[in-house]
Each structure stands twice: as structure tokens, then as C-alpha cells.
Amino acid sequence: MSEKAQGASPLKLAFAEKIERKRRQVSALKTKHGGRRLCELEVSSLFSGMRSVPGCIHEPSTVDGQAGLKLRGHTVEALLERLPRLGSSKTPSVEGLFWLLLIGEMPGLAEVEYVAQDWRKRERVLPESVSQVLLGLSPAAHPMSLFSAALLLLQEGAEFPRVDRKKVPKQRWWEYLFEDVNNLIAAIPALVGEIYRNRTGKPAPERESIDWAERVSLSMGMDDASFSDFLRLFFILHSDHEGGNVSTRTCKLVGSALSDPYLAYSAALNGLAGPLHGLAAQEALDWMVETGERVGTDASEDELRRHVSGIVESGGVVPGYGHAVLRITDPRFVIQQRFAEEHFGDNKMFLFASRLHRIVPSVLSGFPKIQNPNPNIDAMTGVLLTCFGITDTSYYTVLFGAGRSIGALSGYLWDRAYCLPIERPKSYTVDMLEELFEGVDL
To answer: Which of 63, 112, 141, 250 has the fewest Cβ atoms within 10 angstroms?
Structure first.
């Protein structure tokens, strides 16, 4: 362990010790099983998004089609019970999740308090240059464009680009990247809050926060304990979803070129901004509102069923339902629905959404091509944010991006701790594939 790591924080020391053990494990694994095959790749996989094709190592999480998201082997339901809470909050703090995803061990209250204090110390007032850019860009600019651009501007303070990589061995590069990752995460509350306040004009309450999620809430101008609890829940549920999703995958790919965390996560945000990834909650809410306007929120069950059937029969999809991996109702949806029932049980939007959640799956299950007709997390996210008064739907993905940083950047650090090389998969042309299999009997 280097002098830089030896004099470090409890989290950095724990990570350094874990790295040494995991590097030995990887070395033994490669020696014993390095020549074994994980799968036989079919040509069709090249044209279907490489679904379920093994493509990377990612420590923080896995997704089980029958059990849902597991963060370091724990279901989300189990984590919500076991992760420590700070102060009077009713939901575990994100700081504890970061410790778990990085170290792989459940933190105690002392560890969570340490991370909370460390991030609070690292937080800085946004540089004037960043604030000017956020204000100066076109009012029509998407909030995710602002988020991504701001991270690029903050990159000038990164430690890793200043490291002399000829003198510092690559086994130690993670020590500098660790500082950059934690500084980046600490900057997010002020950054996403300023993006929101510039659009709403809300002032930020000047009081101390108990954790990272509450700082996001206060920075947005939302001094509401229940909203802070919701953000803690939201960030945990959106923190990670294996290493193959677009945002996390982009962070890993760009990071493999030794781009620092600011560059890598800015790129990840651009992937998250796509309508097939991070905009899903916005689209699910828009569809629900449009359905209410077209059919009526008091429409009969038969009218709603005909409306949904018509969408599928015409080749459309129903946003907020189904999932590429899951074959069950998304447990994250169930958790958010329970939160909504507790806080907004009489809200008209929630009641209409609940009707749709009961009706839509029974309609979709009648179409053989639909493998999972059940609601996913996006079916409830927009409803909850709207109930809290966050009606600017284009901002929803910014909050998603804040939460995803916890998982994606944990995985980024492990990639660098393993000293993984730059990624360079093989590509083919269609003509090459035809020539490859020409004359081969099926």
C-alpha cells in the first residue's frame, strides 16, 4: 500500500485492502479459467443490441430476471431495511450505499456518517465560470446538456490528468481517481440544484443538511423532509442496473481510455439522455397524461383496455411497461408505489396511474410477443415527482443522472483498480458476415 493510501480516509483504506484481495482473486481466476468460454455468440446478437451477451466485469450490481436488481448481492427491499439512516430520515442515506457498492460490505452507522461528512467537506461553491455557462446557454437547452457540459467544465480541477503516469505505476492510479470520483459526487447537489433553480427561480434554503440527498433537495429549493426521503429512495433505486446499461456502459468504455471521471461520466450522461434510457420516466408520464386527456381519467375499464390494445395493434408500445431483462413486476416499481400510497394515496393522478397499473398488464399479456407486460420503475417515477410539484419533466433525467453516479462511478473505480485495458471489441460488416458463412450448411 502506498504512502498516499496509508494516510487516507477509512473508505480509501478499506478500498485499498479490498483491491489487494480482489487482484489476487482475479489473477487466480485467469490462471485457472482464463481459457474457458462464457457463451457462443450468434449472428443475430450483433443486430439485437447484444442482449444478454457477456461483455464486461461490473462489481456493484447484477439484475436477475426473476428477482430484479441486486446491489452487491442484496435485493433493494433488503437494503432498505439494512442500510443505516442518518438523523430523522425514514430512508437510508445514499452515502451508505456508496460504501456498500465500492467495498462490498454492509457499512455501519459510523461509516455512513464518515462518507456524509467527507462529501460535505469536499463540496465547493460552483465556480463562477460554470454558473455563467449554465445561465448563458440557450433557455431551450435540455437540462441534461447543461449537466453534461458542467461536468466537463469542472474537469479542470481533476487530479488524475496531472499525474505523471511514467513515474506512478498503473497499480496506483486508482488512488488519484478515487479523489476525483468523490469530488465529482460531492459537487452534484450544487450542480443539479442550480440547473433546477435557473428554470424555476426558486431560492435555495440556507440551512445544514444531514446528507447528500437532502443537499440535492435544498439546492433545488425544496425544503421538505418527505421529498428528501423520496430522493434517498429514488437515488438508491436508480443507482445502478448492471454494467451493460447505456449510461454505466458508456462510463466504463470512456474510462477504459483512462479518461478521468469527469470526462467519463459526462459521456455517460449523454447516453442517459436518450429516449430509450433515461427519458423513459418522462415518456411514461406523458403517455399516462395523454391517455387521461384522450380517454378520460374516469373512463371505464373496457374503454381503457380498448385504448391500450389499439396502441399495440398499431405497432406502438406502452411506456412504463416491460423490461429488457426482468420477467416480473419491477421490484423498484413496487417500492415506489408503496411510497406513493403512503404520501399521495388520495391524489387524482396517483389514483388514475394505479388503475392503469392494474389494467395494462392484463391487456399486454394477451399479445404473445410481449414477454413482460408488467410495470417497471418508470411507470411510477414521473407520477411521484409530479405529486411533489416537480412538473418540468425534462428535469427528471437530471435526478436520474445524479443517482446513477453512485453505481457507475463505483464500477469505474473497480475497473481502474483491476487495471483493465482499453476496450476494443471486433466489428464486422454485413458483407463480411455473409462471406464468413457462405456455403455453410444450416
So the answer is: 141
